[in-house]
Amino acid sequence: xxxxxxxxxxxxxxxxxxxxxxxxxxxxxxxxxxxxxxxxxxxxxxxxxxxxxxxxxxxxxxxxxxxxxxxxxxxxxxxxxxxxxxxxxxxxxxxxxxxxxxxxxxxxxxxxxxxxxxxxxxxxxxxxxxxxxxxxxxxx
Length: 140
What we know:
By secondary structure, the chain is an alpha+beta fold. The protein has helices spanning 19-32, 71-84, 126-135; strands at 6-14, 36-41, 45-47, 58-67, 99-105, 110-112, 115-117.
């Protein structure tokens, strides 16, 4: 953990099981992270799945947090939330109980094999851009 607090945007998504309950559990888990505070959450939005696979629609939500966790620590915490929700990593774009992506982390740029910030998916996901715009008013 760092002594500096950064604001980060996280995208939550679910299309298996009780989708709304998975999103609520993720919000609770984020609030429980050390040195982390949930600042705002977008409206929940139902979207079609990405990648052209035949699967159920997703519930999506973007959240704004303030955290002392470094990007790698935050990624590990997000992956632990996914595991606790029963996520099994299989095929790319496959169905999932919970997906938690770091979309932005302050003004930082990270380019590692398993962590890219800003998330490259922003350019292709209209719903992320809408949700980010909804939350950006909390940046001031």
